[in-house]
Amino acid sequence: MTSRVELRNLRRTFGSTVALDDLDLTIESGELVALLGPSGCGKTTALRCVAGFERPDSGAVIVNGEDITKVPANRRDAGMVFQSYSLFPHLSARDNVSFGMRIRKVAAAKRHSRAEELLELVGLPSVGDRYPHQLSGGQQQRVALARALAMEPSVLLLDEPLSALDAKVRVSLREEIRRLQIDLGVTTLFVTHDQEEALSMADRVAVLRGGRLEQVGTPDRIYEHPATAFVAEFIGSMNHIPGVIDGDRVAVLGQFLPIDGEVPGDPEVDVLVRPEAIRLQAATDGAGLVTRSSFRGATARLHVDLAGLELQADVPGHDAAVLAPGARVAVSLVQRPALVTERTASFQPDVRAAESVG
Ligand code: ATP
Fold it and tell me: One GO CC term of this entry (predicted)?
């Protein structure tokens, strides 16, 4: 059985710290929502409110229309996986997985076979007898996942389950968690501060800031149309390029771009531009100078000095040889709506010198 989970106006304070500030968020049945945000924005507190380890000062947690805010954690139907070291060290993998079933007095033979089934489900068919210290970090997290799934929870709560693992294991395990989550159709709340992880796994990403929901949406929506400068900055890299508002457009680097979202009162703005939205063309009289290049395979990230303004641009990997450090380049922007914010760049480049049409 899967569930629809609603966080309604959740507020939780610790002394003068406001961890959750009227947080409103609904996770639809069978959906995986990633809670993403910088350290201290309230992600774990929100998750703990759903688990029942934390009681909000006000607001409610609703599951399938029922208010469970005051239901104790052990009577909630949630499975949880923590960052790490959450297995019982003195129990074998099999006994870790069947622990909850033992508490609920499931017969030994049944819980044994169910634990084996679950270990197989998470890709560990032959480690039942091993103890946590005999398992790698990635294997331990698989066992923790099997344990969380053992009671067929209607909600799965994952608190940075991959952050202690090395990069390769992290990527393969996130794909597997996602596959399992879709197969089982279990409603899942996934806490992470890793934007790539959130974008690659989630049906929707909820970006938190200071205990409030800054934006919630599908990964591509969040990336392509960030609602605020905070979201834009937090997800992926962003260039700040000085521009000037001109009606419903912004003049930037000799081009006019339509404006996406709100227009600040002051016409002098920063235009926020993704590295992949900057076009570079080798040109001996170009205003830009490539200063650094890091090859990433399919793409290369170039650092370009444009009349004193530092830009980061992503180009196809096979262009990296032509656009090597020392190369002069003409810089232009992909013609698409841009977010603008109040001008923060303390450095004002000579915009006329910077104007160069690629
Ligand atoms: P991180 O990514 O660093 O784990 P987070 O987004 O999960 O951060 P929370 O752990 O939810 O953030 O914490 C939100 C705020 O509430 C922080 O300022 C934190 O210091 C504070 N806080 C959380 N739990 C407690 C507690 N038990 N006592 C006091 N302050 C707390």
Answer: ATP-binding cassette (ABC) transporter complex
